[in-house]
Design a protein that fits this description.
Number of helices: 4
Shape: globular
Largest sheet: 6 strands, mixed
Structural class: alpha/beta
CATH architecture: 3-Layer(aba) Sandwich
Bound molecules: 1-O-pyrophosphono-5-O-phosphono-alpha-D-ribofuranose
Helix content: 25-40%
Length: about 180
């Protein structure tokens, strides 16, 4: 199955370079989980993953955290009814768990403009979350439009189009274990 996918990629002559190997990513995820474990000892925070790109990071992170947690997911879209981005974020799937009075950690694969996370933080605070922190695997600063305070950051990047480990380019490359940059 994997070899079929690789063949398809090669045939399209798309170039990519490994930025962070799978081992490096896994090591960093364990470190982030350790930070969260230490900070929330005695608590049972709710981890909210922002679909879809977060899936692998979320699964690895949650299983490396050594305290009890609850999980749920949220989904946002930066597109309105048309095909051109309006810079407006709509929530296309809400959390179903009760967040009022709870410690919440929003888990993202990448922060780019910051618009998505600002919208989600506002939304969860409106729902009455007791605290709201952000955990992002990649904090990419080049296109930032709204300030985001990332409490747990895996890797900082200035720019580049990164794929793999859940991150996509037109829905492709999410399956890669390494994080790569498209050339
Ligand atoms: C990506 C990423 C973040 C968001 C960040 O999601 O996973 O959720 O964009 O962008 P921003 O900081 O500019 O708002 P996307 O909408 O591409 O969906 P996906 O997770 O399904 O790939």
């Amino acid at each position: 199955m994997l070899s079929i996918k690789l063949l398809k990629v090669e045939s399209r002559k798309l170039k990519r370079e490994i930025l962070f190997t799978s081992d490096t990513v896994q090591q960093r995820v364990r470190e982030m989980a350790g930070e969260i474990t230490a900070d929330y000892e005695g608590e049972e925070p709710i981890l909210i993953g922002v679909l879809n790109g977060v899936i692998f990071f979320f699964a690895d992170l949650v299983r490396s955290i050594a305290i009890p947690t609850k999980i749920d997911f949220i989904r946002a879209s930066s597109y309105g009814s048309g095909t051109v981005s309006k810079g407006e974020i709509s929530l296309t799937k809400d959390v179903e768990i009760q967040v009022e009075g709870e410690h919440v950690i929003i888990v993202e694969d990448i922060v780019d403009t910051g618009l998505t996370l600002n919208r989600i933080v506002d939304h969860l605070e409106e729902k009455g979350a007791k605290s709201c922190r952000i955990c992002a695997l990649i904090d990419k600063s080049e296109r930032r439009k709204k300030e985001v305070s990332v409490d747990y950051c895996g890797f900082k990047l200035e720019g580049g189009f990164v794929v793999g480990y859940g991150l996509d380019y037109g829905e492709r490359y999410r399956y890669l274990s390494d994080i790569c940059v498209l050339k």
